[in-house]
Amino acid sequence: MKKLFFLCLLALSATVSMAQTKYLLRFRPVVGETVKYANSLSTSMTLPDGGSMQVNVNTGLDSRCLSVEKGLSQMEYTFTNMTGTISAKGTNIDFPKEATDKMIGKRVVVKMDSLGKAVGDVNASDFQELAGWGVSLKDFNSVAGAIFPSYAVGLGDTWEAEVTTNGMKLLATFKIVEVLDKALRIEGKANLKDIEQEVEGAKIKLSGTMRSQFITDIATGMVRPGTMSMGAELYMTMPDVKEPMKMVMIMK
Fold this sequence. Notes:
This protein is mainly beta. It has helices at 2-20, 97-101, and strands at residues 22-23, 34-46, 52-69, 72-88, 91-94, 107-112, 118-123, 153-154, 158-165, 168-180, 183-199, 202-217, 229-237, 245-251.
């Protein structure tokens, strides 16, 4: 009984210690190190005619730190794989291989500050194909998963930061939900309300909620491969369409 009591006391002490520990999170990747990511994004949406459509995209991305100067990390992101399928009305259509193959090997170079936010212009001179896929280069404003606060944070702490996704500026809330071995599990949430976007000349409005979860390495501020997940439930209002279109996105 005494041994059990002692073990419980140790466990309680460790839990209290983790809750009290604060971490000054910073984006500080290792120069020359390549981190490989693989993601799948599934998007399902209702159509104005009452039907539905689903788009599945699988991508591979290599992240490499080229240099660090004056607190800025020059990061290179290279697509290593891309496949996709569109499903609607019982028909599946694969993304044209000749189009997806053009993406492989293309790179984006961007400077990141110590809080994990892009600084200055994005160098994507050999990556113009992105424009044809509805992807904004502004999405590279944070590839650290979260934009870190200027102060130290610990288990249960929250902070807010402005993030950009597909050209939309959003105020996101981040929270440390678990302390792991040399890493932290972080959750993020952002609410959208009548965010205006322009798609192929038509103005639309987006409302809904976006959530994310990932594990960040304490030493480097990098997201650990295979730990990022994201979910979003959005409602899209279009001109001349009475009912908003519902869109559900899941990324793993």
